[in-house]
Design brief:
The protein is α+β, with helices and mostly antiparallel strands and about 325 residues long. Helix content is about 30%, strand content about 25%. The chain has a 6-stranded mixed sheet. One of its GO terms (molecular function) is endonuclease activity.
Length: about 325
């Protein structure tokens, strides 16, 4: 088939110009950037266990953004490729940029505090719990919670340092301040993995929960969800003015299930920490199942603490009462 032609005034013929087409360079980057922005911003719309898995992995989606930018540069897709990459960048920054900016502006110190809380998953297969405890003692915590305890595995050094302590099942609390009214919280697991107690601070009582929720595995969060339901009901019905919840909730900060507790509680890492505060696995932390949640106090600093022996980092937060 011959190309279209037009008749010239001199009787000759010349080909008609090809119709203009919109530039295609960078369109793949544009599509990928839009999909990424929608996934980051609308992750809560994905239902079920797939949605929970997406929630957990969400912070790591930020690594895709510079990759898309590099592809746009290589393909010389200045417009619209690089412009499109700005969209997921802004969405990710709006969701996760605060703790990083706080660390740059304020550094790691939050100033004076009245109460320091630390929580650690001791790891049932811990080869040297004494080393773990030794590191925890260096934090100079006022309130220390331990979960996944092996019976009798906590060294006497804890009891010597903390005159007040309570153990219920596989969770325990050690405190420099008096503890009273300690009782187990039933998570429906058949053995005690949560407790509630009152700590008598000079400025008033603090209700402390220590919890180790059921396991959550990829596409299998039923046990975790059931225990979260029981814990959330206990916390939501609590009328205490000050509440502190410590432990391994097997729930990432970005997991929608944490919304059962936040609010009414707040996450210390988000309020006063720097960065994401990932705690597990200890060799290369990818997520944050360990939390310090609070209400009725002001968090002024939060961080993670590398501890030997455990497969979790500890979490630490300072509060003004």
């Amino acid at each position: 088939m011959t190309a279209p032609t037009e008749i010239r005034t001199d009787g000759g013929r010349r080909p008609l110009a090809e119709p203009s087409r919109p530039p295609r360079r960078g369109m793949a980057v544009v599509v990928a950037a839009v999909v990424l922005a929608v996934l980051i911003g609308g992750h809560r719309l994905v239902p079920g266990d797939v949605g929970t898995l997406l929630d957990t992995a969400l912070p790591w989606f930020g690594l895709v953004i510079p990759l898309l930018a590099v592809i746009a540069v290589v393909r010389r897709a200045w417009w619209p490729g690089l412009a499109a990459v700005l969209v997921p960048s802004l969405v990710w920054t709006a969701m996760f940029g605060g703790p990083f900016a706080r660390g740059i502006v304020h550094g790691s110190s939050g100033g004076t505090y009245d109460l320091r809380a630390v929580s650690q998953n001791m790891y049932a297969a811990n080869p040297d719990p004494r080393a773990t405890v030794g590191k925890l003692l260096t934090t100079k915590a006022d309130v220390l919670s331990l979960v996944e305890l092996r019976y009798g595995s906590y060294p006497e050094a804890l009891n010597a340092t903390y005159p007040h302590h309570v153990v219920k099942g596989t969770v325990g609390i050690w405190s420099r301040l008096p503890i009273r009214d300690a009782e187990p919280v039933d998570l429906g697991l058949g053995w005690t993995r949560a407790l509630r107690a009152t700590i008598s601070a000079p400025t008033g009582d603090i209700t402390v929960y220590v919890a180790h929720l059921g396991s959550a595995r990829p596409l299998d969060t039923g046990e975790r969800d059931a225990t979260m339901d029981r814990l959330a009901k206990a916390v939501q019905s609590d009328r205490s003015e000050r509440v502190l919840l410590l432990g391994d909730l097997n729930t990432a900060t970005t997991d929608r299930e944490l919304g059962r507790l936040v609010p009414p509680l707040r996450e210390a890492q988000e309020a006063a920490g720097s960065g994401m505060g990932f705690t597990w696995p200890s060799t290369f932390p990818l997520t944050r199942p360990d939390h310090i949640l609070y209400d009725g106090m002001k968090a002024v600093n939060a961080r993670t603490v590398e501890t030997p022996g455990s497969d979790h980092h500890a979490v630490e937060a300072d509060f003004r009462l």
